[in-house]
């Protein structure tokens, strides 16, 4: 190292040769020069950062006369803005359904160029691209099949609250990209993948719900005679297969049919409003037959009467025969039938009838309850069992408010239809918020007005009759429509089929986008498809999941399932918007000027509330599914850096926590070792002590701060690539050893300074290391390793000054790896001096790891001649009891004894060796200087010549003074001996020297302690021992290393510990 220092200063000496020699010396020293080339008057720079090739010359000429010469050197990495404006203006954010974007994500440049000419640019505007698709998806099966029933069960007020709450929940969800894309890029790949899959499942089950609705329309209202055993499952499977085939053949057919389906939806809604207007002037004939107050199933009779008068007298009707055992007037009939009259009421009295007052409040039923008209009289015996139950309209399910919420909510889940098509929009940033909010406003108005109009036009028992059994099996909303019920029946059938096709088209593309992002390794197969990009495998998976929903065979049971998944998706969309706003993310600039983060927070709260209102157990299941996917992606998913909001949240939280840490030092209860692990690397930048990181993992168990650092000698510019390789090696080893933390590589002119820089500069603010872990220097006794142990001792001194704890494992190669297990054994603590409790805390931390878990702890302390060893043991046992540390206590008595001849001799040999090293352990450069000095001392100085000019200082000095000035001090600060000290006479004096008495006493202590420790702990798995401090006088550094070597001799694994000057363990929890 001394030679390196000399070489470093040699570069600063004045030139002593000609210009050519000057150039050679500069080249040898690695300095940069400025060359002036003759032929033109412009100086050219020769620098490693400037490409001097012809291409670079052309590039320089390219920017001539543009006043850009100042930036020419950085044009490769920082091109001119003018060259980027066109590409920035044409940048499009295509999250889903865009083949170009997917190919760009997968770096398929050639395929992207091949298809660029074929694919058309986005051409859809706000009306056709966002508004109409949202209208088609929002108006669907629930409006036509369940809206009247919801009003009848929940009442006008209750249903209006449900509609308002659901519409408010989704009204704040408008994004500038597909929902999956927005969530994943805002909340990170873990949240994005989990919620994206939930959104995919919701879309898939929505397809199942639409198919079940279509089959319900077909079998109940269009072709009721086509019913089979398990008809919903059989016909549903057939329809699903047909739809999947259409989607597989080509999505273009779905797009062509979309306008037809949309026209059916609009015509159906207009027909309903026309029918409502018509009821004010001419209510339709829509009779309902009621026995007492019970609604009858109008299916097997034609006249709503018990008897009718004919020319031949009184004749019984088909209704009589349903409740009596014969058609004769003297027949035995049902008691309730006999006691009550049959009444025919008007099912749709009209909007001016005042029926709204009767339908304001809800009527909730248990499964099997009779659908009764409240204001009609009924004579019945409450103790009599219900007979002929199949003749009456009964409740098919148990109804309650939260069930209604779960059934209705899927009708507003179509708001993402526009944002999912952002790749096809001409101006997505403008169209999506305007189109989505317009669609939400329109549909909310339609739904809310429908609630009021249905309650004002239709009789309550008809509203509560889900399948129209009391009105000849007709669709209630169809009978209300004008000009014909078939407008609603046929229109709703095609609209549900169209919505099902849209779900089967969109869900596979969503799954393909998730698979192609690569965040869920198990789903990568679903990223493949046909040559034109159609997601074949994803379509197959979607069809299988959709089939599971069809097998449930109940629209009312499927609706809450998809409500959970959609609500979770919307909740996280709102969370993403609120989070980006609160974090003030620079790239979050919503174009919608009325947006405020409180709206998103309100929407998120409503979504969470609705999830548990709909079905608390479905909500828990959905959260468990999302949580499991999140942890799976976190554990096995591909690493993606999307600049997500969670990372921004982490940065904000970290900044806040760091500022809090600056307020003061942590309490002793919160103290834990925050380690700076110093490792060394070989020539290939591989870590030389990998077991040091194994010990780090065992000490930390993934908790607290860990910084793994290494030091490199040289200049940063010359060693940048070397530093990068070293950092990669550290990261790889940390990953292998499962050490969670940071790595840092510092480059300085020498290793000593680099290590000191690491010690001083690591950490940030209050989050700094409080302990240093460094390995014992190997082979320190070898002559060429003297600088290593000197650096080690300086490190010990620096940690002491900085009040940092120091952990020094000796024989680190013998320490266990993370895969080993000790089934028995002891961890022995030799507590000789108080260090703030570090020796107590470290074994406790080690025993938390599975490697050391079965090892028992023993604590030894040393008693002197005047100590009461029995009382010491009691006090130590009590102290450990209060610390709640389970350990065996033993007090070792060390009586005063005379210094043995062996100790005296060992000290003498140590000092002789140290003195000899000071004289003969010279580097090659120092020896050359010594020879030059002897030559200069015996040769008169030559006069100055032009070739060898002397500086003024040199000319003023005598040869003797030159010798004194040139003979430098060694790096340890000790004045160098004159050359004569290395003569045979000087060596003879070494062997006649007497040992220092202070060193003799220190050697005596080390030998005595080592003897006791080896006797008690030779079989221990690990020995923890107080580490003595280095001498204040640097002349005894070699002796200090020898003392430590003697202290730990004969022990397999030793951890030397120095405290950081503060208490680190307390009896308080």
From TrEMBL:
Q: Specify where the region named Disordered lies, as residue ranges.
A: 1-61, 93-113, 934-964
The organism that produces this protein has a lineage beginning with: Eukaryota, Metazoa, Chordata, Craniata, Vertebrata
Q: What is this protein called?
A: Solute carrier family 12 member 5
Family as reported in the entry's similarity comment: Belongs to the SLC12A transporter family. K/Cl co-transporter subfamily.
> Which species is listed as the source?
Oreochromis niloticus (Nile tilapia)
The SLC12A transporter C-terminal domain, residue ranges: 690-806, 821-1069
Name one matching Pfam family: SLC12
**Subcellular location field:** Cell membrane
Where is composition skewed (Polar residues) in this entry?
A: 44-60
Q: Where is the composition biased (Low complexity)?
A: 16-33, 938-952
